[in-house]
Amino acid sequence: MSDASLITRDLTIRFGGHVAVNGVSCEFRPGELTVIVGPNGAGKTTYFNMISGQLTPTAGRVEKDGTDITRLAPSARARMGLGRAFQLTNLFPRLTVLENIRLAVQAQTGEGWGFFRPVSRLTALEDKARHYLEATRLAKVADQPAAELPHGDQRKLEVALLMAMEPDIYMFDEPTAGMSLDHAPDVLNLIAEIKKDKTKTVLLVEHKMDVVRALADRIIVLHNGELIADGDPGEVMSSRVVREVYLGQAEGAA
Fold it and tell me: Exposed, middle or buried, 52 (CB in 10 Å: 0-12/13-18/19+)?
């Protein structure tokens, strides 16, 4: 039996006559951070969207811990422990930072706001929310509306929301997109901390090679919707076919 926490089997999607992702099969395991790279239009985000449920594949399967989740909604996948952070921030802009996190904690515990709920339960939810604010270094802005945060802090808040859902599979789509050089290391450090937990599986779509080198245990390369390389970061990025299609180097170039 496979020890993979997540498997895609011949995952394919067509938009009219265009095949955006074509028969991609991969296994992802706990304790491993896999970076998905490829040129623009390679199918990286489309592949991600099929795994997390934003898109339904034309053919193939997505399995989590041996269960077929191909037709499940994103919310159902999240309840099963598959967490996704998006390239664009996905927050409740008018709520405070703390309120955003508290809602995520509440969703994870499955508790509603009952009128007769003991005060101790509400305190426990808030304490747990503050724990994630401390972990993501957002405690100082806990009472600030999310909309008023700078972009870098909004990205950190999204990571905090994902952590509060306590998934066992983390998916990040270009987590430093649009961030300044000053703020990007904060988010990357958070992902590196998540990576240390060997019970977690981490998938990352990224095009910045310094990020890839810093975090990747494994790289898979997509090109024209097909998987063309999968393996050790050094070996994959030095291969001729990857240099040609991803780095734009001609055969024989240094």
Answer: buried
Q: What would the two tokens of residue 93 be?
A: 């802009």
Return the bridge partners of 201, or none: 169
Residue pair 42/225 in contact by the 8 Å Cβ criterion:
yes
Residue pair 30/5 in contact (Cβ under 8 Å)? The answer is: yes
Assessment of whether the complete model's pTM goes beyond 0.90: no
pLDDT along the chain (254 residues), means of 10: 89 95 97 93 94 96 96 91 73 88 82 47 81 90 92 86 91 83 82 93 89 91 94 89 67 41
Q: Which CATH number fits domain 6-95+168-247: 2.40.110.10, 3.40.50.300, 3.30.420.40, 2.60.40.10?
A: 3.40.50.300
| Whole-angstrom distance, CA of residue 131 vs CA of residue 5 | 27
